[in-house]
Amino acid sequence: MNAVPSTLLQQTEQLSESVTRPIPGSRKIHVEGSRPDLRVPMREIALSRTPTLFGGEDNPPVTVYDTSGPYTDPDARIDLALGLPALRARWIEERGDTEVLTALTSEFGRARESNAKLDSVRFPNRALPRRAKAGMNVSQMHYAKQGIITPEMEFVAIRENQRLEAVREAHLLMQHPGENFGANIQKIITPEFVRDEIARGRAILPNNINHPESEPMIIGRNFLTKINANIGNSAVSSGIAEEVEKLVWSIRWGGDTVMDLSTGKHIHETREWIIRNSPVPIGTVPIYQALEKVDGRAEELTWEMFRDTLIEQAEQGVDYFTIHAGVLLRYVPLTAKRTTGIVSRGGSIMAKWCLAHHKENFLYTHFEEICEIMKAYDVAFSLGDGLRPGCLADANDAAQFGELETLGELTKIAWKHDVQTMIEGPGHVPMQLIKENMDKQLRECGEAPFYTLGPLTTDIAPGYDHITSAIGAAMIGWYGTAMLCYVTPKEHLGLPNRQDVRDGIMAYKIAAHAADLAKGHPGAQIRDNALSKARFEFRWEDQFHLGLDPEKAKEFHDETLPKDAHKVAHFCSMCGPHFCSMKITQDVRDYAAEHGVDEAKALEAGMAEKSQEFREKGAQVYHKE
Amino acid sequence: MNAVPSTLLQQTEQLSESVTRPIPGSRKIHVEGSRPDLRVPMREIALSRTPTLFGGEDNPPVTVYDTSGPYTDPDARIDLALGLPALRARWIEERGDTEVLTALTSEFGRARESNAKLDSVRFPNRALPRRAKAGMNVSQMHYAKQGIITPEMEFVAIRENQRLEAVREAHLLMQHPGENFGANIQKIITPEFVRDEIARGRAILPNNINHPESEPMIIGRNFLTKINANIGNSAVSSGIAEEVEKLVWSIRWGGDTVMDLSTGKHIHETREWIIRNSPVPIGTVPIYQALEKVDGRAEELTWEMFRDTLIEQAEQGVDYFTIHAGVLLRYVPLTAKRTTGIVSRGGSIMAKWCLAHHKENFLYTHFEEICEIMKAYDVAFSLGDGLRPGCLADANDAAQFGELETLGELTKIAWKHDVQTMIEGPGHVPMQLIKENMDKQLRECGEAPFYTLGPLTTDIAPGYDHITSAIGAAMIGWYGTAMLCYVTPKEHLGLPNRQDVRDGIMAYKIAAHAADLAKGHPGAQIRDNALSKARFEFRWEDQFHLGLDPEKAKEFHDETLPKDAHKVAHFCSMCGPHFCSMKITQDVRDYAAEHGVDEAKALEAGMAEKSQEFREKGAQVYHKE
């Protein structure tokens, strides 16, 4: 442990056991790619043998996507003050198009660095950042357009496949055909397909060159649906150590990316700790920090200080920026008659600035300058929907759709600069209007990935908005949204605690997986099939382990039937032995086995005849026996 | 208190305060119909005035559907040992087509009644049951077909409207057009429309003449989407007092009907306590009790003892029976190759019986005899889907759809007898297959109401199946399902406790309301609009009160900002004062007000011109200022 002794470091040194303990019934594995330093993490769930009663057979392990990083790897040594290993460092270096800076570029960053008062909260092992060499573009989109398959792209291809080839051999792949609404779903993801999707702008691979600790992942409608979890303190709340722990907690349950929405005093330092310890891409909304710098007075925001903020964060390693460049002055009056006006924080800040200056949004007017920064670090755009509807009444209105059209326009500009781009979406939308929204986004934004918050399908359930929004999220994911931003039960009411974060992520893992199934992603149903088989065969532990939250499943089971014996019992707590339908089904199977399939068929045929007799007698079904 | 002293009675005498306390911010009201004894309960939520900052105005109260019965009425005197007032007794009597029996008809019922050992658990104030006079049919469908509008039908019409006329005047009705997939949604529900829907078989009004305590409600795709909650002990679990409390708890949160799935020792007595104290229709699965009577040996079931069970329960007042008459012998072998075989308890019992006897399901062969019983008490059919899929892999397969076709055939037979009928549906179905299921049900069953369990849209989230299934429930409700049977977080894992029941009901109230909004039920959005307006205006208490669960909303809010002052504060806990988008929106409105709408329009026009300039310069958006 290399560290400046401080209370903070003592705190951050130790993550609680609850966020790092191995996930029950499974182990971390790594699949090697074309080079030894390309090792793609996955989680393998071991399954027990089918009991003899049900035919006795081995059940092959199931491999699942793993976002949890080294934290759930018993072989990894975690030292938060050192940060995670920089697994992409060599790949970045090898490309030879970046240079290590001799000092931070942003004024603000330098000021923070030289401020001795911050020593006690500063991440102690900060390396100097990299930037593209003059005239170079280091975005994955740029490489992709040139036909280059980067190690990041290969990593992603392996990761998306989840050893599907291996599983295919072992499992009888039984899956319903999907309805993909025009998505281009592949049977096997090749690195070339990844490259092509990124070049086409249909997918993004957010990985800032200053975040070499990240495990590459991809966001696009032709890949697995991803979810984002938000963390971040606020004026009212938490500290640095707590935020890092929230990060680790979020990825444990399946957050594919994490947005740091901190707005507190040590926003810069908190972000550094988070990025250095994050195996997933980190997104931010730079305007939040910019507003802090002018003490909350939106009208005092300037392009120059915003620009400095972008560079400050780009050099820390933020992987994508939410930029509210579509909040145009002419759209602002369209919100005046809304039920809930502007509910996006970033959107309202920019609206206020526009009104105060009676000028066009500086994020819009300086958009190409922003692109220049983005491509020097490979930061991806998440074009913010500052005018998203905050209630059903405002859904799909002129302000929202006007902004979406502008985001489409900006997407094309970003692509001209080879800057990776995704588009943020609503919000609150009743079910019957969700598809219109998705279709318009695909059309206006040339299939750039859509990244939606929910949408919430009703306004009347404060305290349960993870559910109101999981419904909308599953549907919009099915229709084509690439990443779903989670909503916790505390939405609209307060700041989420640890339990809320877990509940929000679970609701969104469900929505994302339901979407993958509905789109017909190859292999998406393997885990469902394995779990259901385990359920049928009363392999309780396997059922828990295959679930999205093995700990909760076991805990719930044990509330009713805590004894270990019950985890192998051939009936379950809900019905008791007489009523066990699983048991009766086994009798049916035994009958079919005993009498042979022919007899079963004969039975079917014979009864069909009898039934025909019934029908011929008209409605006179009843007859004496 | 008229009671045999016993521990049970002392227990049941007192419902806990948590299940009976008034729902915060609202009061029970009654809307009178065409006769003074026709008083339809509703809940009126009072709203506070809009703060001056936001324009200061009165907010009219919002009336919402109320399933909670007299329990949340401070004026009602609750005595569980007396049961609820028999509000429909006079209506039933007036029709003159029923008679009070001199003794129970069922052998089993008589045996229980004369067994002194049961005195301590028996409901003490049981009246003798009624039955149709010889040759009479007392079903609401029968009256409807003859053009008679019963008080029950008028009650339902008033109830469905929720004082929409009054609310329309007060509120500016802003609601998105729905997509109703061929449903016949009315602007105002008239008693005649109710009659017509019941006559047509498109809706049912489940209210056994022996359950005069029930407040009439209707289940049909052209009415508000309803939800059912299941209660019931099992071999492993609870007693009578607990079950009654579960009933009251379920309807407090919005259960429209409750199914009593008890399988324990005092199944008959428990049911009596539940029915006598239930203001909502009670459903049962009579085969469960029949199986208890033969000690769990399915092959010993006989038509005669099943018939006795039906009569026993019909005379207690059960409002609908799940009858698994579609599990035909020829379908059983179709389940042998399934991943999870037969998962319906009732379905598996009947399958076992069919196999053991190599005979057709006696529920099918005696179906018309069952109809005779149903119409003598007005018990509605809930035709059980004994072959519903228990996992995604088995969804929409030959067994499931074969049974559904048979249920369609049986529906027509039931209708011939003027017996009210709904159809049960799955189960586990991935999103892309849900509509096929709904469409087939409408087609095969002549639009008889569909009553589905979920469906669950993925198998991989044990512990969160209220969410996996709320997604499917919202969608199938939108497509046309009339009632959604809830699923709790404990599904597949254990018996739900009180918290699980509340969570399950909330998930389903959300799904049902999302469906109503999507179908475009007139007025469905009023509550959403009122809540969102309250949210925008920082009327925190109003926001809580308009929510589906006011207690949870307040509790969550108070976790972050417990002080009372924060409930009127003009910013909230999530963002703090600087970041409050609501506050900024108000600035936008003030600006629009100050500068006039004309200026706002001019602004829009002027900026549109400027933007035109931008576009004409091609993608060259950036320009120096």
UniProtKB/TrEMBL annotation, chains A, B:
Required co-factors: [4Fe-4S] cluster
Binding annotation for [4Fe-4S] cluster: C572, C575, C580
Gene3D superfamilies tied to this protein: 6.10.250.620, Radical SAM ThiC family, central domain
Domain ThiC-associated intervals: 22-99
Molecular function GO labels: phosphomethylpyrimidine synthase activity
Pathway the protein contributes to: Cofactor biosynthesis; thiamine diphosphate biosynthesis
Region (Disordered) residue spans: 1-27
Top-rank taxon, per record: Bacteria
Residue spans of biased composition, Polar residues class: 1-19
One Pfam family in the UniProt entry: ThiC-associated
Sequence positions that bind Zn(2+): H428, H492
Cofactor: binding comment: Binds 1 [4Fe-4S] cluster per subunit. The cluster is coordinated with 3 cysteines and an exchangeable S-adenosyl-L-methionine.
Chemical reaction(s) catalysed: 5-amino-1-(5-phospho-beta-D-ribosyl)imidazole + S-adenosyl-L-methionine = 4-amino-2-methyl-5-(phosphooxymethyl)pyrimidine + CO + 5'-deoxyadenosine + formate + L-methionine + 3 H(+)
Residue numbers binding substrate: N230, M259, Y288, H324, S344, R345, G346, D385, G386, L387, R388, E424, Y451
EC number(s) per entry: 4.1.99.17
Homology family: Belongs to the ThiC family.
Quaternary organization: Homodimer.
Its job: Catalyzes the synthesis of the hydroxymethylpyrimidine phosphate (HMP-P) moiety of thiamine from aminoimidazole ribotide (AIR) in a radical S-adenosyl-L-methionine (SAM)-dependent reaction.
Alphabetized PANTHER family for the sequence: PHOSPHOMETHYLPYRIMIDINE SYNTHASE, CHLOROPLASTIC, THIAMINE BIOSYNTHESIS PROTEIN THIC
Cross-referenced NCBIfam families: PRK09284.1, PRK13352.1, thiC
Protein name, per record: Phosphomethylpyrimidine synthase
